[in-house]
User: Fold these one by one.
Assistant:
Number 1:
Amino acid sequence: MSLPLDRAARVALPTTESVQHHETAVADLRRRRDDALARVPDLQALREHAAAIKGHTLGDLGTYLERFEEQARAAGAVVHWADDAPAHNRIVHDLLAERGVHRVAKSKSMLTEECGLNPYLEARGIEVVDTDLGERIVQLEGEAPSHIVIPAIHRRRQEIGALFHRTVGSPEGEHDPVVLTEIARQDLRRRFLSAEAGITGVNFAIAETGSLVVCTNEGNADLGMHLPSIHIACMGIEKLLPRLEDLPAFLRLLARSATGQAITAYTTVVTGPRPGGELHIVLVDNGRSRLLADPEQRGALACIRCGACLNTCPVYRRTGGHAYNQTVPGPIGAVLAPAFRSDREASTLPFASTLCGSCSAVCPVGIDLHGQLLAWRARAPFGGGRIRWVARLGAEVLARPRLYRLVGGLARLAWPLLSRRWPGNPANAWLEGRELPPHPGASFRSRFRLWSQGSRSREGSRSRGGSGE
Amino acid sequence: MDVALFIPCYVDQLAPSVGIATVEVLERVGCRVRYDPGQTCCGQPFVTAGEWSQARRLARRYLDRFAGADAVVCPSASCVATVRRRYAELSLGDTRVVKEVGARTYELSEFLVRVLNRPDVGARFPYRVALLQSCHGLRELHLGHPSEAVEIEDSAPGPTEAVLRAVRDLELVLPDPPDECCGFGGLFSVQFPEISTRIGRSRLVALAATGASHVTSTDASCLFHLEGLGRRAAFGPRPIHLAEILAWSEER
Ligand code: SF4
């Protein structure tokens, strides 16, 4: 009965140590977020303001997209539209191929991960170097990012040291983060200088001015945008904000929610290409307008990919991001899964939550994440499983008090049997790592009858209870 | 005050002593307790499973049974949260009844503090006790301040903490982090047993690190999960429901 994520967690974080490392690293981000946001006056008003801007923009997205395209063109950028991932990849590849580009420096972009751009370009003879340190680590490791802000958060520093020794020739046994970062930096600098094109993601796009906003901590996007003469920016259509003056609220929330920084180290507003250069903006739908048309689920498009919901999630903390088997893991990933994928596994992801509600409570733009997970569940009960009859049967029993008591009594008789593992025991999933509680004895209902008779007869003969009386 | 008791199905069947303790506490503070033996389940498992048509049947039953009560008291925050917060999403027809019954269904500590204004029920429990906050109690019923809600400036303890602080000789401690989910999650615990037990074990370690002899909660279900893990691993503080602590008096 256990669902795919449960099995995948054993692979993604296989050992107690790996779980502990991930749990601690991720929980630490949540703590930093708490500290940083606690110092923001009127935080609630700021969040509501940001949520309102997103809600408004999504409510009139078509108009804002047209305005953005107009303004971006006026500023000298070339705007491309991609309906889906293959179209996006084709557009990017054509741009590179037409210009004879063989080496690309790419900064962090979840959208290009979503579209599978790297393997697409590599299969066509174009070398892509991820320039974000975390992205570079997972790229060298040959795996996908496991977190949307800290791609290699699942890796311990010893593992990264060994990886760098194998791939970029760092000294054996070196795993001091400062030293490793410097080694990666030297290696990347070389690659930056030889790159013929830069690809970046986009954090926000401003309709009024046709500008792109790119936030990084390493300045790698800036090098990618400014060293080569061609810059390709890939963005989902939901990234729009109406005006430049809408931006500060998001900048204040994004870095604090993500890592507890007051602002990302580099925040760049790009309007048009640099002199003598080219700027191409690829606007990607890839299922977003379908989600926009779904009033119950469209709220997820407000996401600014801060990662706070991942960092607070008790499930994500113990599964790691790879277990989700898609670009965006964690609560927001579980909300997006059924919207973007039609496989059975995706329909089970909304169940991968205890509904503790911490995700919704940390979300800086007020997405009702656990409410949306519940709404998905209502559309595909049990993750589309075949055991709906169990639910029907259960409800039949619970709607009939006599039958309910009978079944309860039988379960009590069978308790010793249920408490042991044997093939076919309905309690087996519970018994994985847990015991059943001890035999509960008689039900409350029958005890209450006895108790209230006893209590009534005791009344008057002696006073019960403590000093409160 | 007349109080209608709601003893959720799982408490009735698996934790009957929690129900009895609830009655004891309520009577001790002067309430007249009524118990309708026709009650069964609020429908929560069906809400979380996505089986909303079955959930509606049970929700309607609940509303019928408790429509006339001035106050319904229940020793389970997640069931109260279902009634108060989730029923509204089930499109049950008469929204006025849904609202009213939801507003008058209380978790035990919530009732003692917010309705009766009596956090002190005269209990004594001479142990160090770690509090395991119920997520639904915390975030849906606001029985405390969730640690992530840094925007809330009010630092007064919520009802659950308030009643425990009023218990004589009880030393209250919180695990670190103070309010992460225990990993139970109802259906979740059997659909994702590996993840559920990973979370639970890590909570158990945090609870044990407080040096508490007992762990308490408003929800027996979370305690079953921890107890089951603790018994398998022969480790961790002893689970005891909040109502059972409050029912301990000087003479016991
Ligand atoms: S859903 Fe909210 S909390 Fe999660 S990544 Fe997106 S903006 Fe951040």
Number 2:
Amino acid sequence: MTENGDAPPLVQLENVNKHFGALHVLKNINLTVSRGEVLVVIGPSGGGKSTLCRTINRLETINEGKIIFDGQVLPEEGKALARLRSEVGMVFQSFNLFAHKTIRENVTLGPMKVRGVPRAQADKRAMELLERVGIAAQANKYPAQLSGGQQQRVAIARALAMDPKLILFDEPTSALDPEMVQEVLDVMIGLARDGMTMVVVTHEMGFARRAANRVVFMADGQIVEENTPDEFFTNAQTDRARDFLSKILTH
Amino acid sequence: MDELIKYAPDLGLGFLENVKLSVVAAVASLILGTILVAMRVSPTPVLRAAGTFYVNVVRNTPLTLVLAFSALGLSDQLGLVFSETPLTNSFWVVAMGLSAYTAAFVCEALRAGVNTVPMGQAEAARAIGLTFTQSLTMIILPQAFRAVIAPLGSVMIAMIKNTTVATAGGFLADAAAVMKITFDTTGASIPIFLGVVVAFMVLTMPVGFFAGWLQRRLAVAR
Ligand SMILES: Nc1ncnc2c1ncn2[C@@H]1O[C@H](COP(=O)(O)OP(=O)(O)OP(=O)(O)O)[C@@H](O)[C@H]1O
Ligand SMILES: [Mg+2]
């Protein structure tokens, strides 16, 4: 699925640079994500993975370079930016479900307010999506009443409700108790199977091996290495990557 | 006690004016305060600066001066007339000044509430494509409001008591003014004084209890 003939990539980053004050967090990043591709981003803490992810829907602005999504340079602000964001789903490490809204309302809010979908239709779709992630029975509860794994699955349903062209996942399982990690990964693997384009920051090697087309290893704001999951995990090319892998493999 | 009974109808009418002022100022200050807090957290520097300027000036000006300003400055000088009837006109002048003053405190209470809403809520709202205004009105402010219902109750209690300085804006028919006029004719009377105090407590105490109850009821679980 990676090689997609002459179809243009869905996401293209060209010479992207980003500074937080004196800190140079993204250094000359060049990266493309093809339609239907699942890209895993891995690397040590502080390497710039989250920042990279967040620049793609412009939750972080960039200082230099260009980001093209679906053939268009990212809009700077306003309505056009809101429209772009509605086409890019995002799943956060800390779920960020709307705390004052029920599970169902969390899923219907975007379609109703951003797309103008009538309530009945949005409700129906929400229930289908909640069914798909296995949370339909909790539709009328509030986020705080659900476990972390359940909340994260709702967050995925909320993203899916917008029919996004791409979903960004920033360490979706890092905040979860170990026994809940798999239920979230299973939903993600299902999405990957269905052809969703995904950029996933994660250290879950099992997920990378089963679902990813490509692994990007980031450290110190740079893309150090890029490979297929099997190649990367068994035969990393750089010392930096081998060193990192030896650390995550031992615990 | 006799004088309280004797003057009760007059005082009651005066007190009714305090109640009316309170209701108008509560509604208007909550609306204006919400607009001000939206300005103060907006991404537009000009709006932010204007909101900050307003709050800092109004909040630090004694209420009597704010009321005198709305009476002398706006009403007399600029010819802002709400009604041909002087008493009705001065009622609205005072209501406007009191609302403008209270709004600054409502704004600051709400802003404290905005600070209790985690960053991730706004990010998630933006990430699904809500505009700034939508994310403010649908996600941030509803949660901010629930977090500060009790402090807003205190702001409202202060506002209700502040209706007694309505005379500073030329409104001479509220309970405090009537009480003063009564004292001028009968001499100071402890029963009348206590009667007015009790009337205000009957008004303000439920506001405090209700706000506390509502805050607990509507609290957002995280
Ligand atoms: N808003 C910010 N202001 C200043 N510095 C920031 C900000 N966000 C991130 N940084 C810094 O930028 C660097 C990259 O951060 P980023 O969160 O992208 O790393 P990461 O690879 O996602 O790390 P982790 O695995 O810990 O999540 C870090 O040094 C971080 O401290
Ligand atoms: Mg991160």
